[in-house]
Amino acid sequence: MIFMHRARLAILSQPKTGTTALEKSLSLRASMTIHGPPELKHVSYRGFMRDFAPLIESHTGLKRSEYLVVAAMREPLDWLGSWYRYRTRGKLLKKNHPRSHNYTGEISYEEFARQVSSSGADRPSYAEVKTPSWVSLAHRDCIGVDRLFPYEDLSGLYALIEERSGKPPEPDQLNVSPDMELTLSEEALALIRGKFRFDFDLHTSLSKDGMVDERFRVWTDTGEAEDYSSGV
């Protein structure tokens, strides 16, 4: 998560959207940069509103309406594949690695996708990946951020940063997942499309200016408990 006071801009860090490189590029211009742990770095919009918005107002006087909160989102299948590839890294096999339980190098992508689509307490930890829009949500299936940019074309986000800070970001590639060809059966693909129906529809609607269709801001109260956790 990045907060740029002079630019009146907060950028939330949805996993697998290149935000680590963006944070590094903007670190000298940022008033606040959360690099870790992942639970703080990838704070959700709900968590931001609960914990960081009051902090920003108390220290700067800026009300939430006086700055933008933005994020990026990746196409759901591409996002899912990136998670799988990222978790095949041999680094996770090192002794005492805190996230070794997330290693996917010994299972197929098909099995990974099926486990992600499943529900229940017995789902393996490597399949816990939240959703492609999780960080941006105000409630379940309801976008809270002011703008949501497609990962596939971040030119609008970069233009916004340049407009508000006077200089474009120049991110390098960091945390790149291993390259591999991934395919799913029609059955597994149907499971994923059912699991992330909201995200597939949302991503299809995104444009490079980051404006969110108002139909994705409508909250239907399901009675479920609010979840302030990050997208990891």
Q: What are the main properties of this structure?
A:
single chain; 232 residues; alpha/beta; 5-stranded mixed β-sheet; two-stranded antiparallel sheet; 8 helices; 7 strands; 10% strand
Give an overview in words.
With 232 residues, this protein is of the alpha/beta class. The chain has one domain (2-217). It has helices spanning 19-26, 38-41, 45-60, 76-86, 109-117, 155-165, 186-195, 197-205; strands spanning 2-4, 9-11, 32-33, 68-73, 137-139, 142-143, 147-150. The strands form two sheets. The chain has a five-stranded mixed sheet, covered by helices on one side. A hairpin with a 4-residue loop joins strand 1 and strand 2 (9-11). Helix 5 runs parallel beside helix 7 (186-195). The model has no long low-confidence stretch (mean pLDDT 91).
What count of helical segments does DSSP give? 8
Q: Summarize the helix and strand pattern as letters.
A: EEHEHHEHHEEEHHH
Q: Over the alpha carbons, how many angstroms does the gyration radius reach?
A: 18 Å
- List the quaternary state of the chains: single chain
Q: Structurally, how many domains make up the residues? A: 1
How confident is the prediction overall: mean pLDDT? Answer: 91
Helix amount, in percent?
A: 25-40%
**Poorly predicted runs of 5 or more residues:** none
* Structure classification: alpha/beta
What are the SSEs and their pairings?
Blueprint: E1 2-4, E2 9-11, H1 19-26, E3 32-33, H2 38-41, H3 45-60, E4 68-73, H4 76-86, H5 109-117, E5 137-139, E6 142-143, E7 147-150, H6 155-165, H7 186-195, H8 197-205
Parallel strand pairs: 2-4, 4-7
Antiparallel strand pairs: 1-2, 1-3, 5-6
